[in-house]
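Bug report

Summary: structure tokens for UDP-galactopyranose mutase differ between web form and batch submission.
Environment: batch mode, default settings.
Steps: 1) Submit the sequence below via batch. 2) Compare with the web form result.

Sequence submitted:
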Amino acid sequence: MRFIGEELYEAFFKGYTIKQWGLHPSALPASVLKRIPVRFNYNDNYFNHKFQGIPKFGYTQMVKSIVEHENIAVELCRSFTQEMRTDYDHVFFSGALDAFYSCQYGRLEYRTLDFKKIICQSDYQGCAVMNYCSIDTPYTRITEHKYFSPWERHEASICYQEYSRECEAGDIPYYPVRRADKMDLLNKYLSRAKKEKNITFIGRLGTYRYLDMDITIAEALQTADVYLTSLYEQKEMPAFTVTV
């Protein structure tokens, strides 16, 4: 509040935060609110990174190229079970931390998303992403994908509205909700996980942290380096390679 004042807080932060997280901003850690950049100029970029970009042929092609590597086997529609651990020297688990233990201590809190597809025969909103901060608008943002690749020409447009809600059993968990009043439950899982052998928890769900894609990828590469070093030095690989 002291950085932006009450007027901007009410206009941009309060309603959007309630929609996105289902909580009043006061119930969330400051790190969540600090994710929204505040500028005093006309720069409308969300990120401050010196280099920004997307894969030349899109994320689908990038991931496809990775998983089609001869040393990678992909099995779909198969849930992880503890018995699988005996098949490998080491496991890197990027699923939900509480799900790894079958939610024995209770379910951690997550937010999930519902998407509504919009097909427009022209431009829809004129930019890649527009966030809707008013509490009276049910969706949080609209993404118009063709604006991510302005070097291409598309007359029609495909957009998606995003609706945030509480993640229930069977939903896809998108956002871990780290609340100060719920840390006891998280710490139970973290304490148990840190004692595990031959497994490392990674990613947004595995470490129960709200991470952007660039940080997630950087941490994955860092984890790979730690693992290779541990093999070379014949040391035990930790359950977490980051501070959780």
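Above is the batch result. After comparison, the two runs are identical; trailing whitespace caused the diff. Residues 213-233 form the longest helix (21 residues). Strands lie at 91-93, 110-120, 129-131, 141-144, 157-166, 175-176, 199-201.
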